[in-house]
Queue: 3 jobs
Job 1
Amino acid sequence: MQNTPSVMHDTAHTEIGFSNENPGMDHPETHADRSQDKPSAHGVLSIPSELVHHILKYLGDTDLVNTAIVCPSFRFISQRVIYRNVEPTEDKVIPCLKCFASYPHLASCARTLVLADATRHYNVFSNYFNLLRRALLNASSLTDLTILLDGPYARYLHGCSFRLRSLTTTLDWDRDFIKLITEQTELRNAMFGGRFVNDMVLPSATLTKLTRVSASPLVLAAVVPNRKIKEVELCLLQQELFKDDILNTASNILSYSTGPLTALQIITHLSDTSDALAALKAITRNLPRLNSFAFYSSDGAVSQELLEAFPEFLSGFECLRSLTLMSRNKADALHDKTFTATLASRWHTSCPSLQSVSLAGSIWLHNTRHGWVTLADLERLLRERQGLLLSRQKYWIEVDPKTISLDEVKSNLEENNEDAEQGNQMERQMIVLRDSILQFGGP
């Protein structure tokens, strides 16, 4: 529901979608409304509603709205699809909240909800936060919530019955916020972007299922130690934060994860090469057993000097398998295809465990038979291998068994074993590549 379409609701098929002009938005639902939205036990459909639901997932928003007017059964299923993933545009946030507050049965369909901060762009009415609370209280089935609302407003989310698995928020990290996340016992993935209030302590029994977190060093210090955090995104957006002492303290804190921590991504402002290299070395001192490391320069330029010095940094890792470097600066060394073409093979000498290198979108994978190859090369090799296997299979089907020698059989078995190992390695590399893409901020 990316564009938040209008949805047919009552028996007269009156639209009550996220329209600012619709007067019906503010009226609460009645028993008659709810009864009309229940699927008929003897509807026109003879196939299971689950199958219809699966089919309707492939329709666009406009088609879904049109489908909703066919019959009560179609309307019920269409609404479940339309309201499953809700991401209203900024001018539709308040109408969306009004819809959820007035029609609980629609709000309860939502699994994913993305809310921008309406207070940044509009002079919202004084009852805005109460409206937000009413809407979220009705969204009982939410599992993924993004609420970009800056400030101390977490109290308006207290007591909600949903149990989130993923939370992205800019709410202040204060006592009310700690109470909120204490209620969310199923949380596994979180991006905490709000202001950290000093002296806030997180109870040890909180966030026991959290495995992936993105936050500033202060928030990470409250969250990571003694929890099973496996993936971390460290946000150091101010230039002065990407320093040796700060990275040393932050990475030392991360080392107290009981996960253990296997993946780290850093988003920062890059300026001085020598300072950057010293800061990076602090990571290997405290987290030498990372499997995946990603670095994203949100500002500044990645220089050739820094990339040339990377072997010194990489040599500190014991089992690093995936390395990702990204930058917004399209003119820096990271985007120089000629310069970066040989970096993976050179870095592999300092870090033999390295299997995947991604540089500004260009991907290299290490293959024991072919060395470092691009993703396109790997796809070509997989196609060639598939063709070879089919050709070999055809030969052994058509050949006369009486003409086959023992040496030929042994040679075929050896080739099959070698090809199987190559295929397994390629599959493992694709898994490594998939796992190296952290689902946080990034470019």
Job 2
Amino acid sequence: MLYLHFILLIREALFALTKFLEGEVCGLSGEAFWVHNMILVNCLRHNRILFGPFNLFSQRRWKKPVISAQTRLETRTRDLKLDKLMRHMHKLKTILDIHQLMSQRKRGSFVSVQLMSRWRNIVGLNVGMGAFLHKYPHVFELFMHPLRRNLCCKITRRMRDLVDEEEKIVKDSEPELVQRIKKLLMMSKNGTLHVHALRLIRRELGLPEDFRDSILRKYSKDFRLVDLEIVQLVARDESLAEAEIEKWREKEYKDKWLSEFETSYAFPINFPTGFKIERGYREKLKNWQRLPYLKPYESKEVLRMRMCGGIERFEKRAVGIIHELLSLTVEKMLVVERLAHFRKDFAIEVNVCELLLKHTGIFYICTKGSAQTVFLREAYSKGCLVMPNPIYVVRRKMLDLIFLGVRNTRSLEYPEEIQEERNGLVFRKNGGGRRDGDWVIPILDSYDRNVLVSPGEINDSKQPFDGCESGSSQSVFFEDQSS
């Protein structure tokens, strides 16, 4: 109503002004100037004129900027080294997915590139399969099939040895994996977890592919399967009820001579380079570090104490649980979306993504790759793990093969292979025994008039083959490209 009252006052003032300026000053007739006056008042009424003497009384309400998980994610300080590491880890994950699909082929280790091109959407490639395979000759070995004359692929010996080494390390570390699963169950609200949730983070925890049978069923004294999809802890082991953060707190207490009040509930804080500390942030962080909370392995009867301390204690307990979960992983990182499968079991009733972005000194969310990944900042220094483990060392060796790219390809020839040239053909003889796909060589030799083949060299050719999966023989030859 007040706004309309001011409009009416301005309208009357303009009417009086019209009488005053009706002819000589403006050079307009009374009717034309009145139309012009009505247009001006209409513009004022709809607030189309932003600045001027007639709208100084109008005020716009100031809206407070919305602070959400999306805005925090967009305005966060980037860690370039962890982003670069994540890009390489995404390539390694894609290569391991391709290797897993290749290993599922029952007729041999060879797979045609034409067949592999169908896996492009499965592994999430945005380039052609052939172009991707040519980028990493130290990982994939491409060759022409001697009979079908189509391009085939197999994993190189160096990459295959690293995959076998990782499987051997995982198999030898079963007692450690059992303790890792027991600690996860001890953190849960009822001592139970869904097997599907463990399967989603199987590689991050270093579990074997058949962990349900090789670990959960094998150690029946420690675990019990309920309805085949829920694993339950049989007995609680209090010797394992100590979080990894307690080791850091004890070291800080002894080395830096800090008081127990300062270190009992504190977390290591490592801000990324370029992080701007706002006014009053240090004081808030200091008070938050001293705030007591319910630790991850404490008994569940004390869980109701969180109601007395407010939402800050409850959030700090969620930070402690996520911190311990990341500490139990091999590479101290985890996909954010997979944390949602543990919210109900760990009693985390807050927005996980917003909680991680709120504590940028403890966690770092990387958006490189196909999903958002959270890193434990204290575990990394200059893009490398501070305390490496055997599985991490093997995966770093796999990354080294990826870093090579198309360089040093001469080292791909194994020393035991001897090349011989005869009649424009190159023979490769492997002293280690037969090689897959070599059984077709005598069949091709029988059609070559320039090469004499004795009848005893021709093997039985009634074996079935598919693409480039086949049996084996003693020699392999390819056409000499230089001739």
Job 3
Amino acid sequence: MCGILAALGCIDVSQAKRARILELSRRLRHRGPDWSGISHHGNCFLAHQRLAIVDPTSGNQPLYNEDKTIVVTVNGEIYNHEELRTKLGSHKFRTRSDCEVIAHLYEAYGEDFVDMLDGMFSFVLLDTRDNSFIAARDAIGITPLYTGWGIDGSIWFASEMKALNDECERFECFPPGHIYSSKLGGYKRWYNPPWFSEDIPSTPYDPLVLRKAFEQAVLKRLMADVPFGVLLSGGLDSSLVAAVASRYLAGTEVARQWGAKLHTFCIGLQIKSLHLYDCLRANKSTAAWGVEARMPFLDKEFINISMGIDPEWKMVRPDLGRIEKWILRKAFDDVEKPYLPKHILYRQKEQFSDGVGYSWIDGLKEHAANHVTNMMLANAKYIYPENTPTTKEAYYYRMIFERFFPQNAARLTVPGGPSVACSTAKALEWDAAWSRNPDPSGRAALGVHVDAYKEDADISNGDEKVSADFSIKKEKFLDGGVKVAVDG
């Protein structure tokens, strides 16, 4: 995962300005500690901090086409770059970098090439022939990107806000699945899958089709010229990623370079909004340590197949032995060649913060309660009138955020509203009981989680108790319908 910064249309084009761009770019050095590069053409600057994953010896950025009239700075991976190189047969490439195809695709197809890319990416491309430019972000927003505007009329793009907040009067999240075109003077959507209209899909569930799509999503993400591993939490999703990678790793190019033993590391959705929540957390927490995270579950083809399945198949149906994520569990329930043991395949889903141990999230709430008084929380609406924190934990995080990003533009990039079990505010409309539980733990999903908070449990950072009657038995379904009674 790399860091990119671009400033376009600057009035100041001096060497001092170039030095300033490099200084701001270095704020992203944690994202790419292997190389720093910059391209300066007229009133435009494109900078790059590289984490070398593919072609580490010659793929330094910014990248160019044959005659260097097109320059691009990219953060991400293009998994189908070999296929695209074949399609661009007459073009001559300078490197083996997967990202170099972007410059050549623009040269061949103009601005309408982005949908040809299969991968995760954010990039800024400058056409020096007419000084026009485009910026783009991948379909779901796996890689972060922000847009900013300078007082001199310049427009800026960066992987993180810290490269913009001292130079831009205003900045915002770059919307996923869009490009920004200087010729159009704004954004336009390039990603328009069938499911985006939110019409109810009707495709029958086929477990083998879903399994094949996921296996391909995992395999294409094994593309690397450096050592790699799997982040294994022990839950269903990461376990399936590890199982598929382990099963098919032998015989691949990456196995020839680094061996067929898979290394795992244990650390203790409304889909249109993932770029504001899970994607952002996953990207920034790994990039902070110079590590690139890849997400097979956000593969475009896998998403299209899974989103196209009739939602009736996705419903939790205790009468049919279907628990959450049943279509995925069933797809990998192979009796002859098991991917996972049954007790892993049909284990109850946990929130990630719970999965690493309930003490993790409980400890954070206790720490926040020790630093935020009752009076501070009572007056939160006066201190933070926008997106007012409603719990001590949220108040504590807000204090940290405001220390580094005091601008109102920064506040507006963070979604607000109450949440239960790390969901968006929309989930609170599903169940009246959930609206009383502003808690990130999956245990706040009363009536769903096997280990949900007990009667009179304190779930609000130490000041307010919400009662819930859990004297009834809850049923946990294993192995396609075997019922195990669990005391509430």
